[in-house]
Design goal:
single chain, alpha/beta, seven-stranded mixed sheet, five-stranded mixed sheet, 7 helices, 16 strands, about 25% helix, about 25% strand
């Protein structure tokens, strides 16, 4: 099973081409994202691999409605009894079983190849699931996580900033780190996506985790600022 520690109390769970994350939230585990439909047993196995039980997952945060992030939400809720949290725009879609909005390929040859050979045709629906909690930009979540609204790739997408270990950013699909730090290969609105990355660059974080690709384990916010200059002159402190 592809479970890899990132920093103490944080693990990346590889679910094929997409990642989920487990972190210790104080009152149990928080799961960030759920993979495509059918990933429930894989996530349960990952939890046991780190010495815990699926019932230890108390919170599920889904960064956005796309099927590779929200696809197993209903299944994992049944397995764990955990409550779910999303941005209101995408929570409304998942409650109805909708898992896609129109996407456009990001310019560039690499993105053309990724979209043609790696992404392919994705489902557009998910099993409908209850989302008990909705969060907006700047809201605080269990375990010391801060929600940051980052539309562009998806209108209701949130990133998460964990204030431990010098700051850990969960970038979701605001950016990718499969072939170096880069824009997501697909966007609803590319200009919004770039603005969201400039917004993220205004925060300080040592580590960055991604829906697709490997973590950046040191100096992550500096790398973001070099590619997408911060929207504000001064970096925003964590916490």
């Amino acid at each position: 099973m592809g479970v890899k520690p990132v920093v103490p109390d944080l693990w990346q769970v590889s679910l094929g081409p997409v990642n989920a994350f487990l972190l210790e939230a104080g009152d149990g585990l928080t799961l960030v994202d759920t993979g495509v439909a059918g990933c429930g047993p894989k996530i349960a196995e990952a939890v046991r691999e780190i010495g815990r039980e699926p019932s230890d997952i108390r919170h599920i945060i889904v960064t956005h409605c796309h099927v590779d992030h929200a696809g197993s939400l209903a299944e994992i809720k049944r397995i764990t009894g955990a409550t779910a949290t999303m941005h209101p725009l995408d929570a409304a879609m998942v409650r109805k079983g909708e898992g896609a909005r129109p996407l456009h390929r990001t310019p560039g040859l690499a993105n053309a190849l990724i979209c043609r050979f790696l992404i392919g045709a994705m489902p557009t629906t998910v099993e409908p699931a209850e989302v008990e909690h909705e969060v907006g930009d700047g809201d605080t979540l269990p375990g010391g996580l801060r929600a940051i609204h980052v539309p562009g790739h998806c209108a209701g997408q949130i990133a998460l900033l964990w204030t431990r270990h010098g700051g850990v950013l969960f970038a979701a699909d605001a950016a990718a780190h499969a072939f170096g730090l880069a824009l997501s290969p697909m966007h609803e609105d590319l200009d919004e996506g770039r603005a969201s990355l400039a917004k993220l660059s205004a925060f300080d974080f040592e580590v960055a985790c991604f829906g697709h690709g490997s973590p950046i384990r040191s100096g992550a916010s500096g790398q973001f600022r070099r590619k997408w200059p911060a929207r504000r002159p001064e970096a925003a402190p964590i916490g």
